[in-house]
Design brief:
With 151 residues, this protein is an alpha/beta fold. The chain has a domain of 74 residues: Nucleotidyltransferase, domain 5 (2-Layer Sandwich), CATH 3.30.420.270. It contains four helices and seven strands, in the order H-H-E-E-E-E-H-E-H-E-E. Helix 3 runs parallel beside helix 4.
Length: 151
């Protein structure tokens, strides 16, 4: 009987469990993937600013581009229906409100400039009202935005 038990012990194989390693995250590979994603987003993103108000500017053969070192003018936009918008954020205004804004700005800055950005189909009466408001507020320089004539 002893032989049988020895034989059974020989057949039984004892498996020694190896210690499992804790899983590791390879940070370098994750950083590489992150950099590729950032580069992809930078390349595919457009940085063009869309104007909030689309205007068809009239053409001028004497059109000039404003210099970068000048003070930025206050902008009044007039669309084809005659609606007025003031400032860089294109806030809708009335002629009376525009008059008071121009007077306030001219009182704080004597070198204030006004630029009229009007659609070529805009009512001319609105443009005249803007120019009158600028004169009342003692704005010294009033310009109009145009585009270069096609060659």
């Amino acid at each position: 009987m002893l032989n049988v038990e020895c034989f059974r012990l020989e057949q039984m194989r004892f498996f020694i469990r190896k210690r499992k390693q804790t899983p590791t995250v390879i940070i370098v590979a994750l950083i590489d993937v992150l950099i590729v994603l950032v580069i992809f987003l930078i390349v595919t993103t457009t940085f063009k600013q869309q104007p909030s108000l689309r205007l068809a500017l009239p053409e001028s053969t004497q059109a000039q581009k404003s210099g970068a070192n000048e003070n930025a003018p206050l902008v009044v936009s007039v669309d084809a229906q005659g609606n007025l918008r003031f400032g860089s954020d294109a806030t809708p205004v009335t002629v009376d409100r525009l008059r008071s804004e121009l007077a306030l700005r001219a009182a704080t800055n004597t070198e204030v400039k006004l630029a009229i950005s009007a659609d070529k189909a805009a009512p001319f009466g609105q443009i005249v009202k803007i120019m009158d408001s600028a004169k009342e507020a003692k704005v010294k320089m009033v310009n109009a935005f145009t585009k270069e004539a096609g060659k």
